[in-house]
Design a protein that fits this description.
Elements lengths: L2 E3 L3 E5 L2 H11 L2 H11 L6 H13 L6 E7 L2 E12 L4 E8 L9 H15 L5 E6 L4 H9 L3 E12 L2 E11 L6
Helix pairs in contact: 1-3
Length: 179
């Protein structure tokens, strides 16, 4: 898979230079807050991230498709299919636009639409699911626009931002995908 084209973005494989671009974006206060709140991950060094990349190249995980979102000729985020279950034709999806300046430009919608088109068409999935912070209204609008349905809430599913936070669970079946 060389790339997946959207209307505004291209989804492509990670390259070494993307590791540094992501790490630099992670050094902002906004990214640090999001990382701790949403991913529950401590800050990591550039060397750590580079080693993660080298391991992923040397030992690819068949249950993960990790892609860079490229817009305007540069990496602006990443999007991943993970927990891929080939037997049940199901996977989870996660998306991140790294810098605040690159948000609210339609990159998320276009990237998600392109990935879903590929996941349902080429990868032959039947179901894609995700979890999202119920307070993230912008992300929920994107997902619902594409046909995702609210399926439930995992109450106080994780600890972040000084307290327990819910996860809104959403799912999309191939016949319900709105291109």
């Amino acid at each position: 898979m060389a790339w997946i084209a959207g209307d505004r973005v291209v989804l492509r494989a990670w390259e070494r230079e993307d590791v540094q671009a992501r790490w630099e974006a992670d050094q902002t206060a906004d990214a640090t807050e999001m990382r701790l709140r949403d991913w529950h991950e401590p800050p990591r060094s550039l060397a750590y991230r580079e080693q993660e990349f080298e391991t992923a190249i040397a030992e690819p995980d068949e249950h993960v498709v990790a892609l860079i979102i490229e817009a305007e000729g540069r990496a602006v985020g990443d999007i991943n299919l993970f927990e891929i279950d080939a037997r049940n034709r199901r996977a989870s999806v996660g998306l991140s636009i790294w810098r605040p300046d690159d948000r609210n430009k339609g990159h998320s919608t276009d990237a998600m639409r392109a990935l879903l088109r590929w996941a349902f068409g080429e990868y032959n999935l039947h179901r894609v699911e995700l979890s999202v912070d119920p307070a993230n209204a912008a992300a929920i609008r994107v997902y619902e626009k594409l046909g995702f349905v609210r399926e439930g809430c995992r109450r106080e599913a994780h600890f972040g931002g000084g307290g327990f936070v819910d996860d809104l669970m959403m799912g999309l079946l191939r016949p319900d995908f709105r291109e």
